[in-house]
Amino acid sequence: MTGHFITMEGGEGAGKTTILHRVSKRLQELGLDVITTREPGGIEISEQIRHIILDPAQTAMDGRTEALLYAAARRQHLVERVIPALEQGKLVLCDRFIDSSLAYQGYARGLGIDEVFAINEFAVQDCMPNLTLLLDIEPREGLNRISANKEREQNRLDLEKMTFHEQVYEGYNLIAKQFPKRIHRINANDHIDEVEQAVYENITHYLKNNERREG
Ligand code: TMP
User: Which domains does the chain have, with CATH numbers?
Assistant: First the structure.
């Protein structure tokens, strides 16, 4: 595959989605063929799975069911959206991917990072991101930002207690140590414009060092 697969990760309120769209626009202005997408979702089947997983009314959902549904949504999104774009040589920017499952379900829910990695290996086969940017923000600061944003709808995971979000943060720290080459940490406590610039520079630096040559 000739494209590049770049994912954005982080806890709630890190600014991932806004930054992803701003950076995508800047990369397009450089003449790059970019698509942005998100997990869980991005295509119809996975958006429907997203609706079930994040519905605040589904209080009975078991942790393993949750992990399997994320993996199922991931598989379908990969096959329908990500892989075809990579085959066409595009730059795919994805809001969350496998590391969210490792941090949220594997670590914070206590299912085990290795166990959750195993079901995700089945889902993604060998299609892992080339680069992952982890927006690093203190969980309390992230949640403050969310509550200040009145337009954002609260989902089932936002409603978890503070300790859950602290665990997610710890989980990401562990995963970043496990995959130091792929995962780059970005300080997201700064003003959003500065975080955007750091993300942009990280991606352009990666692209410069990993130009794909035909033939
Ligand atoms: P979003 O708020 O970034 O749209 O993500 C939806 C929620 O789903 C967020 O609370 C993180 C959570 N999530 C997981 O727990 N595991 C996963 O594998 C993914 C992709 C998201």
Answer: 4-214 (3.40.50.300)
